[in-house]
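Show me a record, fold above all:
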Amino acid sequence: MTIEVNNETSADVDVKALSDLARFVLERMRIHPEADLAVVLVDPGAMEQLHVQWMDEPGPTDVLSFPMDELRPPSEGEEPVPGLLGDIVLCPDVAAEQARGAGHSTEEELHLLTTHGILHLLGYDHAEPDEEREMFGLQKELLSEWRDWRNQREQET
């Protein structure tokens, strides 16, 4: 699995943790080990340009997802297929604002947004109430498993 994380901002971001998280989520979702994912962190100006261009919305946003091969998690008994998952674009400045409002760290917010972006790449959405329940429930579950896995790894070292 190829996961490339590129921080194009001056923000202090643990890109290894984002890469580890993305790998963890993709493995849990049973995505083919030869799938490719790119995560790019940009400043508010660049994010605003993308937000206007692709969503016709003003101002910077927290995360945008750009799917490529429309990979989906395989059904039970189905084999995963390789391909380009796509790109996730994160804005650490917007994440920091949201983190303050939510009462947690910017790192935790970036983890949430990375997971959220991956789920969008995998076809999940939250436009309808039932879709929102499914996506946000899965997001919460994956983040909880990630934290447990990460804590266990830290204790072992």
About this structure: The chain has a mean pLDDT of 95. The beta strands are 2-7, 36-41, 63-67, 84-90. The chain has one domain: 2-156. The CA atoms of residues 29 and 73 lie 6 Å apart.
